[in-house]
Amino acid sequence: MKKSFLNSLGPGLLFAGAAIGVSHLVQSTKAGAEFGFGLLWALLLVHLFKYPFFQFGPRYAAATGETLLDGYKKLGKPVLTAYYMINFATMFTIQAAVTIVTAGLASQLFGLTNDLVLWSIIIIIISVLILIIGKYKLLDNLMKYIIILLTLSTLTAVLIALYSNKETFNFTQIIPIGSIEITFLIAFLGWMPAPLDISVWHSIWTLEKDKTSNTKTKPTQAIFDFNVGYLGTLFLGVCFVILGALVMFNSGETFSNSGGVFASQLINLYTENLGEYSYILIAVAAFTTMFSTTITTLDASPRAMAKTANLLLDRKTKFNYWFWILFLAFGTFIILYFFMSNMGLLVKIATILSFLTAPFYAILNYILITGKHTPKEHQPNIYLKVLSWLGIVFLTGFSVWFLLNL
Questions:
Q1: CB within 8 A of 268, min separation 6: which ones?
Q2: C-alpha dihedral sign at 376, 381, 387, 389
Q3: What sign results for the dihedral spanned by CA atoms 310, 50, 269, 266?
Q4: Contact 379, 370 (CB under 8 A)
Q5: Of 343, 379, 77, 69, which is closest to residue 206 (Cα–Cα)?
Q6: Which of 18, 70, 304, 338 is least crowded, fewest Cβ atoms below 10 Å from its Cβ?
Q7: pLDDT at position 264, please?
Q8: Measuring CA to CA, which residue among 73, 69, 319 is closest to residue 201?
C-alpha cells in the first residue's frame, strides 16, 4: 500500500525535489541563523500567498491537456514573448546558484579538490550525460526516497536540537529595516518555496506523467499530488529555520559566502546535534538533494525554452531541447567563472530576480485559470480566487517596497 501510494505521486514530488534546494539548505538556514525565529511569519505568508499560483500549473494541465505555455500563447504572443525573455534572463543565474551549492557539498563529501568551478563542471557534465542516456527517469524514482531520507534526518536533527536547547525561545517576529536586511528578506521570499516559474515546469511534468503512464490525470488527482509536495516543502522550510535559529543564532558565527566553507557549516548543523557518526549520512542526503535539483533545473529550463520557441514560431525549430541544455551549461560555466568566489552574491542575485518576476507569473496564471481557456468546472472556487487576489497584492507590494529601498 505504501509503495502504491509513493508510485501514485509524481509531479508533486518533482516539484518538492526542485524546491527543496537552495531555498531550504541555504536561505532558510540563514534566516534562522541571522534572525532566530523572527522570519517565520515571512516563511508562512509566502507559502500561503504563492500557493494558488503554483497549484494552477498542474490544475490547468490536468483540466485542459495543455501546458501553461500553450495557455500563455492563447493570451497573446506578446505574453509568451515576455515569458521567453524573463526565462532567458533568469535561467543562467538559477542554474549557476544551484550548481555552485551542489559543488560546495561535493567538495565536502568527496574531498578530491576544493576547486568549486571544477566541481561545477564535473556536476554539469554528469547531469548532461544522465539526461542524454535517459537515466533521469530512474533519478525521479530515487528522488522519492531521497526526500524521505532528508526529511527524516532533518526532523531528527531538529528534535535533538530542541531537546538539547537550554535557553528560552523568543518568537518575536521581526520586520527587517535597512537595505541589507530588506535585500535578504526579498532573497528569502524569492525562492521560498521556489520561483513561481516552476508552475510552468509543473504543467509540463503533469503531461509527461500522462505520457509515460498512459493515463489521464484528473484535476483532483493533480491537486492532491501537488499538495503533498507543497506541504513537504513548507515543513522542511520550517525545520531548516529552526535548525539555523537553535544552532547558530547568537553564536557569534555567521555563514560564509564561500561555497566550500558554507557547505561545511551546513553539514555541521546536523553533525553537532546528531553526532559525528551521522556526517556521511547527512552529507549524502544534502548532496543528493541538491544534485537532483541541479538536474531538474537543467532539464526543465531547456524543455520550457524549446517549447516556447516552437510555439512562438508555430513550428519545430533548431533551437530544441538539446541546444538549450548545451547553451545553459555553457552560460552556467561563464557565470561561475566570474562569481566562484562569492556564492552568497550569486544566490542573492538569482533569488531577487525570481521574486521580482513573481507578480508576472502570478497574474498570468490567475487570468488563465479563471478565463475562457479553462473549463468552468475546473476553475478555482471563490476562496482560492480571494487568496489569489491577496497573493498578487502581496507579491507586487513587496517588489515595490524592495525597489523603493534600493
A1: none
A2: positive
A3: positive
A4: yes
A5: 69
A6: 338
A7: 78
A8: 69
The whole-angstrom separation of Cα 204 and Cα 222 is 12
Cα–Cα distance between 221 and 218 in angstroms, integer? Answer: 5
Please tell me the distance from the alpha carbon of residue 116 to that of residue 27, in angstroms, as a whole number. Answer: 20
Q: Between residues 159 and 364, which one has the greater pLDDT? A: 364
Cα separation of 401 and 404, whole Å? 5
State residue 139 phi and psi, 5-degree precision. -65, -35
Do 104 and 262 touch, CB atoms closer than 8 A? yes
Find the mean pLDDT for residues 83-98. 87
Q: What's 310's DSSP letter? A: H
Question: CA-CA distances (angstroms) from residue 375 to 62, 337, 368?
Answer: 11, 48, 11
In the chain, what are the domain boundaries? 22-404
Contact predicate 406/179, CB 8 Å = yes
pLDDT of residue 251: 66
Q: Phi and psi of 319, rounded to 5°?
A: -85, 70
Of 359, 402, 324, nearest to 92 by C-alpha is 324
Whose grid coordinates read 539526461?
Answer: 131
* Angle separating helix axes 198-213 and 11-19, nearest 10 degrees: 140
Q: Which is higher by pLDDT, 263 or 172?
A: 172
CATH of domain 22-404: 1.20.1740.10
Backbone angles phi, psi at 251, to 5 degrees: -90, -10
CA distance 252 to 180: 19
Provide the percentage of residues in the chain whose pLDDT is more than 90: 31
Angstrom distances, CA of residue 315 to CA of 299, 325, 327: 21, 20, 21
- For the chain, the C-alpha Rg in angstroms (whole number) is 20
Q: Are 36 and 170 in contact (CB under 8 A)?
A: yes
Euclidean distance between CA atoms 337 and 124, whole angstroms: 14
Q: Grade residue 270 by pLDDT with cuts at 50, 70 and 90.
A: confident
Tell whether the model's pLDDT for residue 171 goes beyond 90.
no
Residue type, 355: F
